[in-house]
Structure formats: C-alpha cells, structure tokens
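Note to self: keep these together.
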Amino acid sequence: MNACSTEPLLRVQGVSRCYGTRIALSNASFELWPGEVLAVVGESGSGKTTLLNIAAARVAPDSGSVHFRVGPGQLEDVHAMSEARQRLLARTEWGYVHQNPEHGLRMEVSAGANIGERLMAQGERHFGRLRSIAADWLLRVEIDADRLDDSPRAFSGGMRQRLQIARNLVTRPRLIFMDEPTSGLDVSVQARLLDLLRQLTQKMHLAAVIVTHDLAVARLLAHRMIVMQQGCIVEHGLTDQVLDDPQHAYTQLLVSSVLPP
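Structure:
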C-alpha cells in the first residue's frame, strides 16, 4: 500500500447481481490501494468471478457502484462510463488475465503481435520499437525472445499464460484482474508462474485482484484477502491473519480442509 495515498485506487460499494432467481452476489464491498494485492477466495459458485467481473466493468451490477481513481482526487464510476471509455481503460490502466489463456490471447497472430497490440492501441507505430519491447517482455516472463514470431498455438499452457501476462503488463497498467491464473497447470508450472507473478507485482508496484480457490496462492501473493460464501463476503482481513486465525465458521472449514494444522 502506498502510504502517501489518501484514497483507494478502486472502491467497490454494495454491489449485487442476480441471474434470474439466483443471487450470484449480495451487497459486496471492498477497497484496493495502489500496489496492493487482494485475493478473493471461496468454493465454486461463491460469487468470486462475478465480483471480479463487476469490478473490472465486464458485468454490470444490479445495484451498487465501482469507482476507479483516474487521477488525483478523481474517483470515477466505471459503470457510468461510455463503452469506448471502458475499452480505453481496459487497454491502458487495467489488465485482465483469464483462467484459460486462449480467452485472453489472439491465437491467430504471433506472440510478438499479441504483446504489441496493446502498445499500438496507445499510439505506438514504430515497427522496430514494437518488436524490441515485445522481445523484452518475452524475456521478462521467461520466454526466449526467438519465439517472438511463433504462434501461441505452439506454446505450452504455462507459456501461454505467461504470454497473456506479458500482453497485459506491457502498457504498465496500475491495476490487473486475474481469474484463477494458475488453475489447470501442473504443480511445477504453477510454482514458476506464481514466483513470476510475485516478482512482477512487487517490481511494478502493481495493484491486483486475484480470484483463486487455492489458499496457498492467496498466502503467497496477497496482502489481504476476502472470503466468499453463497454470494456474500463472510470474512476479510490481512492474508496471514485470516488464514492463521479464521473467525467465520466457513473460513475455518475452508482452511482446515486445505491447509495443514
């Protein structure tokens, strides 16, 4: 957290969402500060991804609001923005890492083009600079620069996820949303990706909201965490505090079933 900040980077207030008669999310609120990593945990169907997508302006809430700090003293309601303004924000100030990297990559173009696309959206047109920056970001996410012209289809699952991360971070966003970024990967690949994410968030002073069902991922990456059950936030606090001394009965059950005593 930036001690000089007097206001959050992101403020989510009382958001709710129903799908027909099913309550997916009920009156959820949180604040996120610059450089802070927040984990959202809970079992499948608890509302984690709905909350993430509302915060990222990908799904509109039925009630409540989401404000992002667009400048000093300027908190703007992201759901009141025009679609064009939301798209610009998503390409510049924000990033979104999907659980399935194929959903966050353009599979028909090269790795370098995937990374360069966000730079071009910001106005970069010099071909040499685009290739140089893309090659540098491949190295940052531990992919050989000589894979620049390769298709993502030629990459392993772990490499595709790292490429998706490079694609999102190349514009140096202030905030990144991640939906189960390590799910479906082999344990050794997960460990490598988690170490990379920890390094990048720290070096870039990057704020992040990470949805995960894996409490070990939350402990490794997140400063704070919120626990969700049946669409409600049932507990929140510092990550180590919540995991080492859970107060809510559901959190206690979640921790005891996953983490060793």
